[in-house]
Write a structure and sequence with these properties.
The chain is built from seven helices and 35 strands. The protein is an alpha/beta fold. The structure holds alpha-D-glucopyranuronic acid (GCU). It holds the Pfam family Glyco_hydro_2_N.
């Protein structure tokens, strides 16, 4: 007898196949170009016309049949139809070019008051001139579209993608118009769904739209599609990795890896699959660290293709309850952050926003940041490399995911693979996290253990983590989440003094019983404070309450054997629809150490003082 769950799972798998391939084969998403922004690109950032489409009229006919699955494939907004020159005026009930515009990159919620809470479909359209050259290939690349996207070029479907925070890429070489006049149309839909990743319930704003850069990358016909250049796991004197070519001439090609400053230049030969792997002595490399974030100019070339990157080299490992960076014990003085600049509402748009967030973290005394709860902008990782901050980066396997649904797992695994693909050459990336505060259970353990194993198969040089669950019995806190056995770190969120455990002055009575002999990283603690609201330390929402909470949290946590770091929640107040108290919240989660207007609260200085002491203790500075 097949169980109900089994039938559900099989149905989902069949559905997944149907929706992915449908009746019209979609161009598969090409392997993500490594360091895509570093290639020769034509930017499509700027004004895109848009049409709001809550009933998806631009996608389905009135019988709810998808236009792009019909015999002609036509009829949707993606045709970008215009009246023909004939006398009679055809019935066309849309016109992109006469519609309003949204700025790309940028979520739609923060660009128009009527879109602040909008959840549904918005169509975007951008015309561009690009005359394809012989011997070249062209890739249309979106840094991220939240959440589901259908993408069309010159009226033809390129593909469909799910996942709001990882790059989307299509080889458009054969789809470009010979005339040079092209237009791209995107159906972006941020509807929350129970089987999505994340699912319908989160504590952040569901910013929809094309939230990161869009460009077209040009490469030679045979080109460098991917590469990894890092120190071998726990071997500081060995440089290892691979270069992957694509295109008809990929096999048996020479590839040159050069790090001129280190006097390293090595020529490799690709195999029949276009791949060349290497293990090279690299004694002369100066290691990267937060105190000395040394980056090298690395050049990878083959035939007509040359890719330049700036890469740092370091090792990170655990030994018992210690974390060793380049063989030396390190304490992770961290802070959590969302991909949001509180001063300019909405998703962080570009380098200025990101550099500001990381500068605040440096001011706090951090050597480490937790980029919660989803893959952040690739630029954030490059800035962390440059500014000397280690990074915990994460997929949005958050809270109550549909653990039994195969399509949900495939989606989570695809997002994890893309996260690792984008971050694998970044010295700052020290931790891959497979999720946050997920409720223990058999299906959840299977799902997340599979993600851990996938991550290790893709990259064995980083630490694996997740924000685990704990349970309390009186003042005894126990951490024995079975997922912890699969991970390199014991990380968990605890909210003593805010959600549980009484007032700040009462929390130092808690003791922690942790099952694993691994380094302990507190992935979250904190409490809300409305900046400028002052009262005594027992008055919730005041800065003094948050200040006392941090003081007592640090006292309580310092009793934990094996404590090797923390990322308190959170650097700055952030928008969250769950937070509707009309006086203290107004749609913001106020656990920030910095307010939504950039004011540092009293608790900021408590943590800053503690981090100065820890830096003195570990780094002697
Ligand atoms: C949770 C969760 C965060 C959330 C925070 C809070 O631990 O991980 O995403 O914002 O608590 O409740 O403020």
């Amino acid at each position: 007898m097949i169980s109900r769950n089994r039938i559900k799972a099989l149905t989902a798998a069949v559905l997944l196949l149907a929706t992915t391939f449908g009746s019209r084969p979609l161009l598969a998403q090409a392997t993500l170009l490594q360091n895509a922004p570093g290639r020769k690109v034509l930017s499509l950032n700027g004004s895109w016309n848009y049409i709001i489409d809550p009933y998806e009229n631009g996608f389905y006919d009135y019988r709810r049949e998808a236009f792009d699955q019909s015999k002609t494939g036509k009829g949707g907004y993606y045709d970008n139809q215009k009246p023909s020159s004939r006398q009679e005026t055809e019935l066309i009930e849309y016109d992109f070019d006469k519609s309003a515009a949204l700025q790309v990159p940028g979520d739609w919620n923060s660009q128009d008051p009527k879109l602040l809470y909008y959840e549904g479909t918005i169509w975007y359209k951008k015309s561009f001139t690009l005359t394809p050259k012989a011997g070249k290939r062209y890739f249309l690349y979106f840094g991220a579209i939240n959440y589901e996207s259908h993408i069309y070029l010159n009226g033809k479907k390129l593909g469909k993608h799910q996942g709001g925070f990882t790059p989307i890429q299509y080889d458009i070489t054969s789809q470009l118009s010979p005339s040079g006049d092209n237009f791209v149309v995107v159906k972006a839909d941020n509807t929350r769904r129970p089987d999505a990743v994340p699912t319908i319930n989160t504590d952040w704003w569901n910013y929809g739209g094309i939230t990161r850069d869009v460009f077209i990358a040009e490469t030679p016909t045979t080109f460098i599609t991917d590469y990894k250049v890092q120190l071998a796991k726990n071997e500081p004197g060995t440089l290892t990795g691979y270069v992957q070519l694509s295109g008809e001439g990929k096999a048996g090609q020479s590839v040159t890896l050069s790090i001129a400053e280190a006097g390293l230049r090595h020529t490799l030969k690709t195999d029949a699959e276009g791949r060349a792997t290497f293990r090279l002595p690299a004694r002369k490399l100066k290691v990267w660290s937060p105190q000395s974030p040394k980056l090298y100019a690395v050049s990878v070339s083959s035939g007509a293709d040359v890719v330049q990157d700036r890469i740092g080299f370091r090792t990170i490992e655990t030994r018992g309850q210690d974390i060793l960076l380049n063989g030396k014990s390190v304490y992770l003085r961290g802070i959590s952050m969302h991909d949001e600049n509180p001063l300019i509402p909405g998703r962080a748009r570009g380098e200025g926003d990101l550099r500001m967030l990381l500068t605040w973290a440096k001011e706090l005394g951090c050597n480490y940041v937790r980029l919660a709860h989803y893959p952040h902008n690739e630029t954030m990782l490059k800035l962390a490399d440059e500014m000397g901050l280690l990074v915990w980066t994460e997929v949005p396997v958050y809270w109550t995911i549909a653990w039994e649904n195969p399509a949900t797992y495939q989606n989570a695994e695809a997002q994890l693979s893309d996260l690792i693909s984008v971050g694998k050459n970044r010295a700052s990336v020290a931790v891959w996290s497979v999720g946050n505060e997920t409720p223990p259970g058999e299906a959840r353990l299977r799902f997340m253990t599979s993600l851990v194993r996938k991550a290790r198969a893709l990259d064995d040089t980083r630490l694996l983590a997740a924000a685990l669950e704990l349970h309390r019995d009186g003042f005894k806190v126990t951490v024995d989440d079975p997922l912890g056995a699969e991970l390199d770190l014991t990380s968990f969120n605890e909210y003593m003094g805010w959600y549980v455990g009484g007032k700040p002055s009462e929390i130092t009575q808690y003791t922690f019983n942790i099952k694993y002999n691994k380094p302990v990283i507190i992935s979250e603690f904190g409490g809300d404070a409305l900046a400028g609201y002052h009262a005594d330390a027992d008055t919730r929402w005041s800065e003094e309450y948050q200040e006392a909470l941090y003081q007592n949290q640090l006292k309580m946590l310092s009793t934990i054997r094996g404590l090797r770091g923390m990322t308190p929640w959170i650097l700055a107040d952030f928008r969250a629809t769950r937070r509707q108290h009309p006086v203290y919240q107004n749609g913001f989660n106020r656990k920030g150490l910095i307010s939504s207007t950039g004011v540092k609260k009293k608790a900021f200085y408590v943590l800053q003082t503690y981090y100065r002491q820890m830096a003195q203790q570990y780094d002697g500075k």
